[in-house]
Specification:
Largest sheet: 4 strands, mixed
Number of helices: 4
CATH topology of one domain: Translation Initiation Factor IF3
Strand order of the largest sheet: 1-2-4-3
Strand content: 15-25%
CATH class of one domain: Alpha Beta
Oligomer: single chain
Radius of gyration: 15 Å
Structural class: alpha+beta
């Protein structure tokens, strides 16, 4: 027998999963750095490959680029391009998650 899960229960499960992912993201180190060139196609491809391998990736932005573009804007752009979820933004670092 298939047990149907209500929309409310599904939301609760997803929320708990994201809490665990957020906690895990605080413990890992950045694996990708965004440099002076900003968000490029090559960088997006690199992030996508890393997401396929690890599912959770932490990205750090160099100070030099912050003057030109806001981190929130960069994070949202990368999230959209990689079709992933933005987990957290802290300072110059943000974390992305993509369930394969």
């Amino acid at each position: 027998m298939d047990k149907k899960i209500s929309l409310n229960e599904r939301e609760k499960i997803k929320k708990n999963k994201m809490k665990k992912i957020l906690k895990k993201s605080t413990m890992i180190k950045p694996k990708i750095w965004i440099g002076k060139d900003g968000v490029t196609l090559k960088l997006v491809e690199q992030i996508s490959r890393r997401l396929k391998i690890d599912k959770l990736v932490k990205i750090k932005v160099q100070k030099a680029i912050i003057e030109h573009e806001k981190i929130e804007k960069m994070a949202k752009k990368v999230t959209k391009e990689t079709k992933s979820e933005l987990v957290d933004i802290r300072g110059r670092t943000f974390a992305l998650y993509k369930d394969n």
